[in-house]
Design a protein that fits this description.
Length: 358
């Protein structure tokens, strides 16, 4: 039985993000640096508007609670004031060691701002003990060890928001970063009808022998984004190494992941490859995209951040860390691109892919 309720916010502190980053440099806690910071649909374009830039000083959101499979789960929701019934829903999943509130604050609140501009409802669920139970069977976090049913949680979340917020269940986009990206893979494989568009950031498909998901082999629109110099999720494939923790096992390369989803979607031709106009020459990165868009087939796109690490691009101001901490973060996570705002590019793909299926 599934039951929804609202309860008090869990203990929190305004300085939690800065502390998490400091701990990441010292103790190797998972993906936190990416939570800081910020057209035309064919080909994907990078043209961030000034209106999407803003402060990260967001008020703490209301934490809502949902009971699924005997566990109380939590999430936040952002709904722009005055938004009517039937709005699209984005569900945004954090990475290892993160939270829904981290994702809401990512890049100075980029997803909230986009929701305000574009008329979206955005949900930020919390993983079980800061992780998601993705397809990798030997991962040593509790969500996997206890075999938490996160597919059921996300299903219940969409159903609940359909009732409580009037969202359109036929306009759902599921977005995830790192461990959250791997959870996107799980939903796309096991319950592809839950969302109409899938977005996996900083995640490559598990290698053979490192995947315990049930595969329905159903084609889905998929946007992938990865850094060519990612020290955690290796662009060329291989062992995922998070501060010495290798329990997540091996993954395919980013290119194999993209081609795999293209083939699953029935896209048999070569992708359209585009080198993007440089917008931030000093950041040490460049952008290339591969797109498969055959008529009548779900679209698949891969954005390759050349020189980028385990973070996604943003146009928001980057943190002004002390030199020693900045060097430690660079060594642990690699370079962050400022070529575009990731939330806007996701919107471009989501709108294009969904319209193509109508």
């Amino acid at each position: 039985m599934t039951r929804a309720s609202r309860g008090p916010d869990p203990p929190s502190a305004p300085a939690r993000m800065g502390l998490l980053v400091l701990l990441a440099g010292v103790a190797g806690l998972a993906l936190t640096v990416v939570y800081l910071g910020e057209r035309e649909a064919a080909p994907l374009s990078a043209n961030p508007s000034e209106s999407t830039r803003g402060s990260s000083a967001l008020p703490l959101g209301e934490v809502r609670r949902l009971e699924v499979a005997g566990r109380e789960r939590s999430y936040q929701v952002y709904r722009p004031e005055g938004l009517g019934e039937g709005a699209p829903l984005w569900v945004v999943l954090h990475g290892s060691g993160g939270s829904g509130d981290d994702m809401r604050r990512m890049h100075g609140g980029a997803f909230d701002r986009l929701a305000q501009q574009r008329g979206l409802v955005v949900a930020y669920p919390d993983g079980y003990e800061e992780h998601w139970n993705d397809c990798r069977p030997r991962a040593d976090y509790s969500a996997n060890l206890e075999n938490v049913d996160d597919v059921a949680f996300l299903t219940a979340l969409v159903d609940t928001l359909h009732v409580e917020e009037g969202i359109d269940p036929e306009q759902v986009t599921l977005v995830g970063i790192s461990n959250g990206g791997h959870m996107v893979f799980r939903v796309a494989f096991e319950l592809p009808e839950l969302a109409q568009v899938y977005v996996a950031l900083l995640a490559n498909l598990p290698a053979p022998g490192n995947d315990d998901c049930r595969h329905t082999e159903h084609p889905v629109p998929m946007l992938l984004m990865s850094g060519s110099e990612d020290p955690i999720n290796p662009a060329q494939g291989g062992l995922v190494n998070l501060a010495g923790n290798t329990s997540r096992g091996a993954v395919l390369s980013a290119e194999e992941t993209a081609v795999g989803f293209a083939r699953l979607a029935g896209q048999v031709g070569e992708p359209r490859r585009t080198s993007w106009t440089e917008r931030a020459p000093a950041d040490g990165t460049a952008i290339e995209s591969w797109e498969w868009k055959a008529d009548g087939r779900p679209s698949v796109a891969w954005i390759r951040v050349i020189g980028g690490g385990h973070s996604v691009p943003t146009t928001a101001p980057l943190p002004a860390w002390p030199a020693a901490l900045a060097a430690a973060v660079l060594a642990a996570y690699g370079r962050q691109s400022t070529e575009f705002e990731t939330a806007e590019i996701i919107f471009d793909f989501s709108s294009s892919a969904r319209n193509a299926l109508l």
